[in-house]
Specification:
The structure holds three protein chains of three kinds.
Chain A lengths: L2 H31 L14 H8 L1 H33 L5 H13 L2 H12 L4 H8 L19 H26 L2 H8 L4 H30 L2 H6 L7 H10 L6 H33 L1
Chain B lengths: L3 E8 L9 E8 L4 E5 L6 H9 L6 E6 L2 E2 L10 E4 L11 H5 L1 H5 L4 H14 L15 H13 L5 E5 L7 H18 L2 E6 L2 H7 L2 E6 L2 E6 L1 H6 L4 H6 L4 E8 L2 E4 L2 E4 L7 E7 L5 E2 L5 E11 L4 E7 L2 E7 L1 H4 L7 E5 L6 E4 L3
Parallel strand pairs in B: 3-8, 3-9, 6-7, 7-8
Antiparallel strand pairs in B: 1-2, 1-4, 4-5, 9-10, 11-12, 11-14, 12-13, 14-20, 15-19, 16-17, 16-19, 17-18
Chain C lengths: L1 H18 L2 H8 L1 E2 L10 E2 L2 H6 L6 H32 L5 H13 L2 H15 L5 H25 L4 H8 L4 H29 L3 H7 L6 H10 L3 H21 L1 H5 L3 H8 L4
Antiparallel strand pairs in C: 1-2
């Protein structure tokens, strides 16, 4: 058997299963978004669904909100993760315990974290009670709306909590592979601690940081259950809006739901391309 | 340019009772090319990291040109280090790597560019400035690393095993380049190596570390002619050690009385002679020895001998060895000027 | 020593932030009456736990179902993903980058982008609303993870050792069982345990494909959360964390050693 056939045989089950599920799912979404649905008598594909969602203010607001959520959470989580990785890289008493908590967090389902954040930050949550006990507020309505709020602060808090460990662990693994020698060289070449971080460590961590951030962005942009728990009634995060359109009793909104799913997929693919590029570049540099 | 002086330098790594480096005293003359030699675990890399400031000593001082640099941050010591692995920054071009230190000092870009171009020509990398480190050969990477350190005109240049990652064919070229750059710049250079032939070929001064202590320091030939201890002699390939007593210019041992060169201390000791210094045929200090074995080694042959119950080893050219027959007796001489007496092993 | 103090402080803040959201869950789950603005409940009770663990709540049933789905998905993913990982880890071939990208895509793309279309496909195949359908849907985010982790594992595997075994008289099957499998087992265990967790955490695919008829734990959790029963919700939420905790302890050796298998896999960690 030639190598080529051997490789193909090894890959075939994965390609068939993933291709079958993923491509048909994506393909049907695409068809329906063009309002092609013979069973309902729709045989002329058109762009009406896209036209419809692009002209509704609700969709654009939701899109903007989801981009805001994803961008802000990714930025904050990445910055904090960088700090956390630098702290956890050194030895100090209790490091094993902190590392354990960071890893534990990775295994907790998002929905559990979302409920925890809700119980902490809602207007009748733990912090509101603490504020009341401290005499800072006189009732729930005085506590700032941190969950189910228009700025999606609760959602962002959840992602910062949940994605910080994810990025931190990737950075720690990268740091371990890199070792400390490049930094030692930089110091011996006259770079200060800060210069070493800025001009050597950070650029070398960048491929890992960028690809991890890309994955976080994609997730924060497209997750449904988190904004469902922590999001405001209006505007809704895009996945929640899409779900609502999909489950609407009025079947006419279905193509619009599909069109929204296509928009979400497109942004996901864009991020995938970005992640693939940074990973490739990282590998090329390392060679 | 400045002399480097280490005094009482001691380093222990966490939890170990044995010091990685024990009270090292060493003076490295300004502008010299010194090899810091030792087997792995002898403390030579520790010494280098202490000088570079990458680790802190437990005791002792490091002075550069009369001023203590012990408590200075690595970047403020005027000490540049080239690691065994070239450790080029993968995200920068070759020129970016070479110009790194100047950029850290905040020099303007055009001055960095001209310095880099000059430096690249000196290490014979002209035209490769735009390459990525990954696109260079091992030798080119090593030269880039060297240029990156030299461009800063450091007071002291530390080279950690600069030849060990290279193919044998490239070693000569790199050795040549290091000697050339050293004589051009006159920078005090310390080369760490575990290979005694490399140390001798490269440096004009050698310091040998064994078990975290300085065993001997001096010009390369002294390690062959006048080793300080049996361990030093063994490290440099010494194999013949004959116990006995030196008295009035004569060494008494199982081999009978042997004439010694002038200036050898009297008393009990170990007579040593390098295997390549043994001669076959008549001459001073003659012996009759039995040939126990002849091993062809390529450019040389090794002859195992037994004389008066003492095992001796000789190295000679293969032609001379061809008429030696195993089991036969042969005349051997130990030329007095090749003899040296070590203090008795404790 | 200023920097050391700062580092300890940062580490403490990080640890606190990590456990913070679980604190109200623990307190709620054993609270008896906890009204605003009380800082602590009026009393303590295990009623929420005993209800959650009784037959009435449906939690146990759902726990068994979720475990069953996640286990089956993990086994399926291993059967498909190990060969694919071997191809990607051991060989260089034309189009490898593209194949990798294609295998990575389902993990990066949000589940909701595929869920609607997949539901339509499954509806036609009679898989919508069935446990089988949900398991197949879970393969979409799980399989990429399994494949890419195994690719990382195989990239550090020397196939010459298999040739050596064959030359010593082992059949292909014996070679796999006695040589290859033991070599990849630690990586496979890590991949399997985390694959389990990825399936275990799915919400939107289960909801869309199962159509509410396949009641896994997150769906049950959601219905109690929606009903405003904070105490029961908290108890179920904590139950929902347990497998993750178990996995972490099981893989502790690999995880704390920061095995490259995990780091390679984490790059592609799908949620």
């Amino acid at each position: 058997m030639t190598d080529r056939r051997h490789i193909l045989l090894l890959l075939a089950p994965a390609l068939i299963v993933l291709g079958g599920l993923f491509l048909t799912g994506l393909g049907l979404t695409l068809l329906r978004s063009f309002r092609y649905f013979p069973a309902l008598g729709l045989t002329q594909p058109d762009l009406a669904a896209y036209a419809a969602i692009l002209t509704t203010p609700g969709f654009l607001k939701s899109l903007a909100l989801s981009l805001w959520i994803a961008a802000t959470s990714t930025l904050i989580a990445a910055a904090l993760a960088l700090g956390a990785a630098l702290v956890l890289r050194q030895t100090f008493p209790g490091r094993a315990f902190v590392s354990f908590l960071v890893q534990l967090n990775l295994t907790i389902p998002h929905i559990v974290g979302a409920i925890g954040i809700l119980y902490l930050f809602s207007q009748s949550g733990s912090f509101a009670r603490l504020a009341y006990a401290a005499g800072l507020i006189s009732g729930p309505q005085d506590f700032p709306a941190l969950t189910q709020d228009p700025f999606a602060i609760g959602i962002i808090l959840l992602y910062v909590w949940k994605e910080l460990p994810f990025i931190t662990l990737i950075l720690l693994a990268n740091l371990q592979t890199l070792g400390e020698d490049h930094e030692a060289v930089a110091r011996s070449l006259g770079a200060s601690r800060w210069q070493t971080f800025r001009h050597v460590l950070l650029p070398m961590l960048m491929p890992g940081l960028a690809s991890a951030s890309g994955l976080v962005f994609a997730f924060a942009f497209g997750a449904y259950e988190v904004p469902l728990v922590l999001g405001a009634y209006s505007p809704k995060a895009l996945p929640v809006l899409a779900w609502q359109a999909w489950t609407d009793t009025d079947l006419a909104t279905r193509p619009e739901a599909m069109a929204m799913a296509v928009v979400i997929a497109l942004i996901g693919l864009l991020l995938l391309a970005l992640v693939a590029r940074t990973l490739n570049r990282g590998e090329r540099d390392a060679r | 340019m400045a002399a480097l002086t280490l005094s009482g330098l001691t380093k222990r790594y966490g939890g170990t009772s044995q010091a990685a480096l024990h009270r090292l005293d060493l003076s490295i003359a300004s502008g010299s090319l010194t090899a810091l030699l030792g087997p792995s675990g002898s403390g030579k890399t520790t010494t280098m990291k202490l000088i570079a400031g990458l680790i802190a000593p437990d005791a002792g001082d490091i002075r550069l040109g009369g001023r203590s640099i012990r408590d200075l941050a690595p970047e403020r010591r005027g000490v540049a280090m080239v690691f065994q692995n070239p450790l080029l920054f993968p995200h920068l071009t070759v020129a970016g790597n070479v110009g790194f230190g100047l950029r850290m000092r905040g020099l303007p870009a055009d001055r960095i560019a001209s310095s880099v171009a000059l430096m690249l020509s000196r290490v014979r990398l002209t035209g490769l400035g735009d390459r990525r480190p990954g696109q260079l050969s091992g030798g080119q990477q090593q030269r880039t690393a060297l240029a990156r350190a030299l461009i800063l005109r450091p007071d002291v240049l530390l080279l950690d095993e600069p030849l060990s990652n290279l193919d044998p064919s490239l070693r000569d070229e790199m050795r040549q380049l290091i000697r050339e750059l050293h004589s051009e710049t006159g920078i005090t250079t310390l080369v760490v190596t575990h290979d005694q032939t490399e140390a001798v070929a490269l440096a004009d001064h050698v310091a040998l570390l064994l078990d975290g202590r300085l065993a001997q320091a001096g010009p390369p030939e002294t390690f062959y002619q006048r080793p300080a201890t049996q361990a030093v002699a063994r490290f440099f390939g010494g194999v013949n050690f004959i116990p006995g007593t030196a008295r009035a210019g004569v060494f008494d041992s199982a081999l009978g009385p042997l004439r010694l060169p002038a200036g050898i201390a009297e008393g009990a000791g170990l007579l040593t002679i390098r295997p390549e210094a043994l001669r076959f045929g008549p001459g001073p200090n003659p012996l009759i020895a039995r040939v126990e074995g002849v091993t062809f080694l390529g450019t040389q042959s090794r002859i195992d001998l037994l004389a008066g119950g003492v095992r001796l080893q000789a190295l000679t050219d293969p032609d001379a060895a061809s008429d030696l027959v195993r089991g036969s007796d042969v005349a051997v001489t130990l030329p007095p000027q090749a003899l040296w007496v070590l203090p008795s092993a404790p | 020593m200023h920097a050391d103090r700062l580092r300890l402080l940062a580490a403490f803040a990080l640890a606190l932030w990590m456990i913070l959201p679980t604190i109200p869950l623990v307190v709620w789950s054993v609270a008896r009456g906890w009204r605003y603005p009380d800082l602590l409940p009026q009393g303590w009770s295990l009623k929420a736990w005993s209800f959650a663990l009784s037959g009435k709540s449906g939690v146990l049933e759902s726990l068994a179902l979720t475990t069953g789905i996640a286990s089956a998905v993990t086994v399926l993913a291993a059967l498909i993903g190990v060969p694919a990982g071997r191809a990607l880890g051991l060989y260089r071939f034309r189009g490898k980058g593209l194949v990798t990208l294609f295998l990575l895509a389902p993990a990066v793309l949000p589940g909701i982008a595929i869920a609607f279309g997949l539901h339509g496909v499954f509806l036609r195949l009679g898989l919508a609303g069935t446990v089988t359908g949900v398991m197949l849907a879970h393969l979409i985010p799980v399989l990429p993870y399994m494949t890419l982790v195994m690719a990382a594992v195989f990239s550090r595997f020397d196939p010459d050792i298999e040739a050596q075994a064959r030359l010593l008289g082992a059949t292909p099957w014996q070679t796999f069982r006695c040589v290859t499998l033991p070599a990849i087992l630690p990586g496979l265990m890590t991949a399997a345990l985390f694959a389990f967790l990825v399936s275990w955490s799915q919400y939107v695919l289960t909801l869309a494909i199962g159509g509410g008829r396949v009641q896994t734990l997150p769906l049950v959790l959601f219905s109690f959360a929606g009903a405003g029963r904070n105490d029961i919700t908290a108890a179920i939420a904590l139950l929902y964390i347990l497998p993750g905790l178990a996995v972490l302890i099981l893989t502790a050796r690999q995880v704390t050693g920061r095995g490259a298998a995990l780091s390679g896999g984490l790059r592609q960690w799908p949620r």
